[in-house]
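Troubleshooting log. The previous run stalled partway through. Resubmitting the same two chains, unchanged.
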Amino acid sequence: MLMISGVVAGVGLLLYFKYLNFFIEQFSELFALFGLKTNWSTFQLIVPIGISFFTFKLISYVVEIYKNNIHSERNFVDFAAYIAFFPTIMSGPIDKANDFLPQLKTPRTWSNAMVLDGCKRVLWGMFLKMCIADKISPYTDSVFNNYYHHSGITIILASVLYTFQIYADFCGYSEMAIGVGRVMGFRITENFSRPYFATNVGDFWRRWHMSLMNWFRDYIYIPLGGSRCSKAKMYWNTMVVFMVSGLWHGANWTFIIWGAYHGALVCFYKLSRSVECGLKSGNRMKQSISKYGSILFVFVLVTIGWMVFRCDNFHQFFGMLGRFTAPGSLFFSWALTAILPIGIMLLKELKDEEGWNIHLLHSKNLYVQAMSIAFLMIYVFYTGELNGAQFIYFQF
Amino acid sequence: MNRKVFKFIGIILAIVVGADLLIGAVSKDAILNVKDVGVNQTNTVQAFFKRKADVLILGPSTANHHFDCQILKDSLGMTCYNAGRDGQNVIYNAMVLDAFLTRCTPKMVVVEVGSSTLSDVWMDRLNDFNCYYGILKPIDDILDSIATHIDRIKRLSGIYRYNKTWEWLLNAKFSEEVPDLNGYRPMPVNHDSHFSSSKQKWHFEVDKKCLHYLNHIVEVCRENNIRLILTSSPSLIVNTGNFGRELQRYSERKGLEYFDWNGDTVYTNHPELFYDRTHLNSEGAKIFTKDFIQKIN
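Second attempt completed without errors. Output:
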């Protein structure tokens, strides 16, 4: 009973602050369709910062106590530190209560290795945010907001760049949060694992915003029955999770459809899994072609999804699709210098993905490691955007 | 262990400080010798350090794209330089005017004033001018007056001060020469655009620092017997707030000429004169510049 009231209270507050106006508008429009006029007005609410994130932490805390995985916290400061841990309060990662609370109970000691590792992750996060995300942002903003001025090739390029922008922005934040946590002696849940190297959409969601997807798996998908039920029910559960995920991102139909689109893609992938098994056979060359072909295919599908996500409404989305064939030259901007850091990021991820034994920031050679850190620092502060935009995920 | 840590930090510091000094030494000369290719940054170099003119146009993008210097020169018989710059507020205008006065005294200064040029929304963009610090005293004085202590410390670093300058320096280096339009940057005519006029409320919200520098411009012009004209350009977004009225009151108090095109149907009924909802295209700019000349004569 306590668990249910805790969850209801958390979800209720989230619904009130984030979705009340959206529901009022939608119901007004629905009634208007039937010729019924309503005089409902929307509210001017100040949404608490990070509400989507700390609500999910709160629910995790309540449910884990119910499952007997943790004891209820007697120390309010520890409880508040878990809910409002400052590096993660704005945009996660969403730590589960049973991962984070025990860390507060163990004494933390200074460790050079952990501090250095934390600093390197902060620096890499700054590189992603300042040299990629904020660099691309003026380009994508100007194309998405004025798509009617741009040619097809510019719109395609801006869509691809937005795919990198949102990753660099969000992963950059997560890296910094994890890094700051590590400097203070905490191990925060990882949020990304090279998502654009996913070979199918299911794989993408195991690599993208992992802490949120794990949360959905543990607290929505499995309680609904997960995959241990009929196939039809499993597909239904998948769709529910992705549509809730879409709605979690914001009170807008574009987010809901974006969630439904990914849900449908995951369902379709589950249906067609046998086809992919066939492709995996063959020699190494064929396997490589198949693997990178799949990566490219998933990238295209994900990019289309991000277009829906980025657009303010469907008029804009279809307007942009309509311009795909529009002739004209490529709109050039110095924001395109972000292509170099994107290349650096992809190379690093490719190295990690393939397990290549090349190390720069993590080299065992002191000189190589120090020089890599120094060059990355110079690159970030000389070329990066010092007055960049807010993190995209702050709005969620 | 400690020795290893110090050595590690020492290597990082040595490389960063070395690069910082090198970047600082190279960038200043590169900026002063940059070719004028008619983009925001090279226009600023021209306005700060090179140009002389009888008529100086100041303001944000609406000034830069709306005042055709050739038409002004032909009609008024005076040389003209358009020092408007996209997304910059009145503090930038004060820097340009003070820098200009070290070389010549213009006969007329036109300041285009929009709602954002007096508010604090574009304040962060003044960091774009850190790279000009240390070249001309009047610019340094204004940059110092708006900087915090932390800003001043950060400005000691070449990497910070010249952040991203390489982009526009390289751009200028490899760009083709463009015809000299004296700073004016016309916007293309787009026959496909279908804009309509709309209304929006902008109230007169003035940042203290911006007001201080608007007053500074007024004082400097008075001291140097320069004719100062304030303008608000036409836009398809008609302002129904009190911005124009308050600016009119300010101008009357200070004894200035103020011309407001807000809601002027000559423009709002002709969206084909616009590049987008707030900027005239080159055809619109021609009509507007002639309109402006008629009003001031």
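Takeaways: The domain at 35-123+135-146+169-296 of chain B is CATH 3.40.50.1110 (Rossmann fold). Chain B has one domain: 35-123+135-146+169-296.
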